[in-house]
């Protein structure tokens, strides 16, 4: 037993989005015997919002849960598990400094924390109204950080699956153009990147598709070997299920063309993948094929697009639908007649009726929403929903209102030569 | 006739103004029925209230799955939509009461 070819690397998934649960990550750090724990926390909108936060405060712009997550898992990771995450968001430098400070507080000042930058390409974008522009970096700079000896790697916009591919490339010495191996590793990363969505989250239906102990849903881990073969599993004594259906559902999640799934590292063909159940909650994957990575890197440009104002109020009992509809008409009339508001893409939703013109549900929730140019205009929408309490149809209750800034995101494609990832180790000059 | 809910599970994903819906046969033996009786046109008709673009279908027999790539989600996708479900994450489940004709 135990030649180099037998060596397996264990990679756990600690988060599937910025606001994800933390306790399953702690469980993996504690009991998973992991070599790597990866937190994937950036979405399309998260990245641009983080840029706005940094513009308002130069020390902000990284994941709000960075500190809580690191305090929770670092004590269990020390000396055995390296951590990789894109929680640096719009400010990987500041995030890495914060992690190093937390490690020192926890009694581990020797922890080597690296930050990966270079995804911010706002300087390359000519659009005047752009407030953010972030390219999707591949695994290269994360591999470089691991080679430099980092225990924790904090990145900005590195592609989700690349965060997982990087430790495989580093551990197994996979070449940056060994397309089939990169495809195999990318598929494993794609499956892990949404954490609980592989283990029965976003899957359960209590009647048709029950998931055991959903409240205790565990996060997944992969056991990967140098030939790219991999098993996906979850820890014993956690909730959830990991089988052919949950894995296949996640394999195809957010995929446009399964024969050409584009990533910064490789173009993946999923059509030959086979998902095989080899034990309870253990699935083996094989058959991913790769082709050359796209010549250009995708970037998302963020632009300010005004504000979203929303208001909601409920009606119940016979005639609830008609009263909610009247309420919506009254709100729009007042927003126009009293305030002269210009509404963009206004929506009047009768929640509970869906798109069924005949539905007469026992409870209907009115929602009025629109975009406006200014924050104060957006606030008027929720206000005029709230005034329905005393100025609208009978029996309105439970009014709520909100306002938030809107960012419009548009993709652009940049030549690779113009985008360079960079690595800096905390405590060393950049 | 058998309902899609009886035969399959669905997984909805989103990317900008695109919504993807994977339809997975619970039992792989039912894949041929799905492939025969669930063309892109049926999915497009069911999602018509929430879609402005075309629906493309990909067949994945080794996975026992069909993947529908649905363009033009109402509201334009998560970044600037005024929709309550701006992603479109609830849309795939609208397919589950489609009745499939067995031969």
Automatic annotation (TrEMBL), chain A:
<protein>
    <submittedName>
        <fullName>Uncharacterized protein DUF1446</fullName>
    </submittedName>
</protein>
<feature type="domain" description="Acyclic terpene utilisation N-terminal">
    <location>
        <begin position="9"/>
        <end position="424"/>
    </location>
</feature>
<dbReference type="InterPro" id="IPR010839">
    <property type="entry name" value="AtuA_N"/>
</dbReference>
<dbReference type="Pfam" id="PF07287">
    <property type="entry name" value="AtuA"/>
</dbReference>
UniProtKB/TrEMBL annotation, chain B:
<protein>
    <recommendedName>
        <fullName>AtuA-like ferredoxin-fold domain-containing protein</fullName>
    </recommendedName>
</protein>
<dbReference type="InterPro" id="IPR056362">
    <property type="entry name" value="AtuA-like_ferredoxin_dom"/>
</dbReference>
<dbReference type="Pfam" id="PF23544">
    <property type="entry name" value="AtuA_ferredoxin"/>
</dbReference>
<feature type="domain" description="AtuA-like ferredoxin-fold">
    <location>
        <begin position="3"/>
        <end position="100"/>
    </location>
</feature>
